[in-house]
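Progress narrative, work stream C.
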Amino acid sequence: MSELAPVSADFTLSSIDPQSTAGIPDKKRAAKQLATVGEEVALLQERLFAESKFGGTRSVLLVLQAMDTAGKGGIIRHVVGGVDPQGVHIHAFKSPTDEEKAHDFLWRVRNQLPHPGIIAVFDRSHYEDVLIHRVRGFSTPEAIEERYGVINEFEREVVASGTVIIKVMLHISSDEQKSRLQERLDRPDKHWKYNPGDVDERMHWDAYQEAYQIAISRTTTEDAPWHVIPANHKWYARWAVQQLLLDALTKLDPQWPVADYDVEAEKVRLAAT
C-alpha cells in the first residue's frame, strides 16, 4: 500500500505523475483484482451493515474530488457498484440551491453524511467551497482561508462519531482531459455527458491545480488524510480506490452480530412447522 499512502502536508501536486500505475503491473492484472477484491469489499460492507442493525455506529465516507472527466462516475460504477445497494448512499454535489445558500456551506454536507452501517460516496463535496470559490472568486480570500480550519474541525467531528473518511483526488493531466472531452464530442452516445462549461473551466487549469495544492496541503490530517491517485489510466484509478476502500473496511473489521435469540431452540421450532 506504499504507493497509495496518504500525502504529507508538504507534498507537491506537480510531483505526482498522472500517468503512473505504481503498485499494479498492468490493466489485465488490475481487472482480475478488481473482481476478486470486489467480493471482499462486498462481504465487509455487508458485515458493516449487519453490525449497524444491532447497535453498531460505524460507517465510511468516500470523498471523490477531481477535475471534470477524471473518472468519478467510473469509480462509483466499478468499485462501489459491486456492493449491496442498501448499504450505500451516493450524493453528487451540484451548484447549491437557494435553500442551501441560506445556510453555512457545511449544512448541505451534514445532511448527506452516512448513517451507521453505510458507505457514503460524495461525488464532489464541501471542498468545492475552497476550490471553485478560490479560482472563480465566489468568496473572499479571507473566507476561504477560514474554511480550511472549519473543514478540519468538521472532519474531526465526523471521524470521532465513528465514520472513516477516505479523501481522494483523482489526478489527471490537461492533455488527458482534453482527449476525454474530445471523445465526448466525437461519439454521439457520449454527447449527453459533454458540458460546454467544462471548456470554460479548462481555461483556469493552472489556477485549479494551485487551488488543489493549497486545499490538500491545508486539510490533510491524521484524522482525514488525502490520497492523490494518478488517473490518466481509468483502470488504475479504479484499482487504487478499491484498495483504499478495502484497507479502510479491513481495519474496521466489522463482525457478524451474535444472535439475540436461542438459535438451537429456533431450529426445533422451525422443524416442527
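Work stream C, second folded protein:
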Amino acid sequence: MSGRDSRRRVVVTGMGIVSPLGNDVETAFARLKTFENCVETLPELAEYEGLNSHLAARCRFERPAHYTRKVIRTMGECSILALNATEQAIAQAGLDEAILQGGRCGVAYGSCSGSIPPLLDFYSMIVTKRVQSVTSGTYLKLMPQTTAVNLSVHFKTHGRLVPTGTACTSGSLALGNAAELIRWGVQDVMIAGGAEEFSPTQVAIFDTLYATSLRNDASRTTPAPYDTDRDGLVIGDGAGTFILEEYEHAKARGAKILAELVGFAETTDGTHVTNPNADTMAYALRDALADAELDGAAIGYVNGHGTATRAGDVAESTATRTVFGRAVPISSIKSYIGHTLGACGAIEAALTVKSLQTGWYPPTLNLKNPDPACAELDYIYGDGRNIDAEYAMTNNFAFGGVNTSLIFARA
C-alpha cells in the first residue's frame, strides 16, 4: 500500500474570493478573458514624501448590509474581506451549522499582518501618553491571528485553529496545512485561505527594497512578470477562501466536488530573509510532486508566483525548469491583480482551479519578450491557452525564505 493509499483524500467543495478582478470566482475568472489588468495610479500615494511607486490594484468592495457593527466589531478590513470570501465558499459548499459547529471543522487562515489602522491607536498612546484611542477591539483587529480567530468566532467552529502569518505564502500555507489535517483524520472539513487589506506601508516596504514598479504614468503596462523590461511589482488587496473536505465526507452529503488537492509542500531557504533561493524553491516543487506521487510530466500548467521582480522571476523560473526539465506552460495572475500578499496564494489557487475546470488558462499580461535571464519555460502570453490538463501546480514564495507548492487535480 502506498502512502497515498493510506491517507484520506482532500477535495475542494467551495471557493470564494474578493479581488481587484471581481468579488466572486465567476466574475473574476470571466474578467481574466478581457486581458486588462486592474492596476491604477493612486493620487493619494503621491502625498507620501519619498514613496516612489504610486501604483496599486485595489478591490472594489462594498460591505453588505448584514455586516453590522455587532458583526464586525472585532474585525479590521482584512478580516472583513476574509469573512465575505468565506461566506461565498460556505454557501457554494452547502455547509450547515451542524458541520461548521460539530467539532470536525477547523480554520486555517492568514495574512501578512493584521489590520494596519489600529496600530496608529497604539502608536498614539506612546506619543501622547494617553490611552484614549486604544479600545477593547484594537488588538483584536491587528493581532497576527485576527483573520483565523474572527472567522472561527463568526461561524462558531470548534475544531483546529491554524493562523498562518508567512507573508506572501500565508494563503497557500493555510491551504496546505488544512489539507494535512484532513488527510490524517484530525478534521473532516477546513475553512482555509488568506486575506490582505491595502496600506501605503506595504508599498513602502517593497519600495525601500527597489522592488516596486515605477510606471506611475502607464499603470496598465505593469507589472510585467518574466518580461525583459519588467521593473517591479504592484501591491494589491483581497481575500480568498477554500472549503476543503475529506472525500468520503463530501460524497456522503452529496456535495459537488470542484477539484482535489493532491499535493502540498513547504520548504524554507535558511539562507536569507529576502533574497530568493532557486535551489530551495526547487525543493518545494519537487516535494509537492512526491507528495502527490506524480511525475513532473503529469503537470499540465504551473501558476507561477511571478512578482515581476528581477531576482524573484529568475529564481522561480530556474527552480521550475530544474524540477520539470522541460518548458512547462506557466503564467502569472499577478499581472492582472498585482501582488495581494497574504491573499495571493488562495486567490491564485481559486482561479487555477477554475482553469482546471474549464480548460482555459490565462496569459501573463504585459509579457512580450521573456527575459533571457529567466529559465526556458513555456510562458503563456498574448492570448490565453486551452490546455487539457489533469493536474495543475500553483507556487508561492515569501519573505523569510518560505516556499510553498500546491497541486490540484481536475475533478
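Residues 12-410 form a domain with the Peroxisomal Thiolase; Chain A, domain 1 fold (CATH 3.40.47.10). No further action is required on this item.
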